[in-house]
Amino acid sequence: MERIKNEKQEQTAERHEPEHNLLQIEGRNAVLEAFRSGKTIDKLYVLDGCKDGPVQSILREAKKADTVIQYVEKERLNRMSETKKHQGVIAAASAYAYASVDDILARAQEKGEKPFLIVLDGIEDPHNLGAIIRTANLAGAHGVLIPKRRAAGLTATVAKASAGALNYTPVAKVTNISQTIRELKQRGIWFVCADMEGELMYRHDLTGAVGLVIGNEGEGVSRLVKEQCDFTASIPMKGDIDSLNASAAAAVLAYEIVRQRLE
Fold first, then answer.
1. Which of 20, 39, 209, 260 could disulfide-pair with 34, CB 3.0 to 4.6 Å?
2. Which residues are 146's β-sheet partners?
3. DSSP assignment letter at 132
């Protein structure tokens, strides 16, 4: 319980600093041009109650891009601002470019391999995300899928934790994990959900086109996502505590997929 409590405290701290290690863009013209140029904006902070024309134009662009919008008080924007000339809008842009799901599947096809995806359902700690991207690269996964909301994005902290793997492993950000899994199942990919109550991982056939689903650090895979998975897999536990952390569990399960594929 102490481990889970500490992890949750770290995640809460991270959520209170969503702009940490992201490229921050301030001012109406700069933010509007960032959207129009196609730059990936993770989150838009807007002065609550602001109704003037330029801000409405920015909001329209943000909604077209399905960017997360957060309305905040002026004091919050002032604290966040580096230039002190935010004009009521600050955008947090991803430090690294995202791939698409099709890009990831094309990568598998180019290599002549069955798709191997790692799907993350709400990983909030950037160190965990970076470690999982590192594992994905070393285990030969073709890419990582993360949700657009309530999860860590591609920050400089993630890049550092990945030990360079982020430069080689594509990461796709999707609006709805459950829906994406449904669509990928129609394309022949099976999904295995990491679950402490699942069948032992050794008893599953993981040699085909597979998506490994790893859940949130504190709560695991959400019910809606779990319902979309084809089966659940557990890691044998012999110690006195109840679970591995998310990145360690991802590594153990990913390498069971590697082992089976090698055989």
1. 39
2. 173
3. H
pLDDT in tens, 191-233: 999 999 899 999 999 999 999 999 998 889 999 999 999 999 9
Q: Is 204 left (phi over 0), alpha (psi -120 to 50) or beta?
A: beta
**Residues 68, 55: Cα–Cα separation, whole Å:** 15
3-state secondary structure of 198: strand
pLDDT single digits (tens) 127-147? 999 999 999 999 999 999 999
Tokens (6 digits) for 91: 């955008």
Q: For residues 203 and 56, what is the distance between their CA atoms, to the nearest angstrom?
A: 55
Reduced DSSP (H G I as helix, E B as strand, rest coil) percent helix, strand, coil of the chain, to 5:
45, 25, 35
User: 257 CB contacts (<8 Å, ≥6 apart)?
Assistant: 116, 139, 206, 210, 212
CA–CA separation, 40 and 76 (whole Å): 23
Helix residue spans in 65-187 (DSSP H): 74-80, 101-111, 126-139, 156-161, 177-185
- Render the burial of 68-90: b for 16+ CB within 10 Å, e for the rest: beeeeeeeebeebbeeeebbbbb
116: part of which helix (H) or strand (E)?
Answer: strand 116-121
Residues 6+ apart with CB under 8 A from 193: 213, 215, 221, 225, 226, 229, 231, 232, 233
Give the list of residues 6+ apart from residue 111 with CB closer than 8 angstroms, or none. 142
The per-residue b/e assignment along 210-239, b for 16 or more CB within 10 angstroms, e otherwise, is bbbbbbbbeebbbeebbebbeebbbbeeee
Please give the distance of CA 35 from its chain centroid, rounded to a whole number.
21
Which secondary structure element, helix H or strand E, spans residue 31, and what is its range?
A: helix 28-36
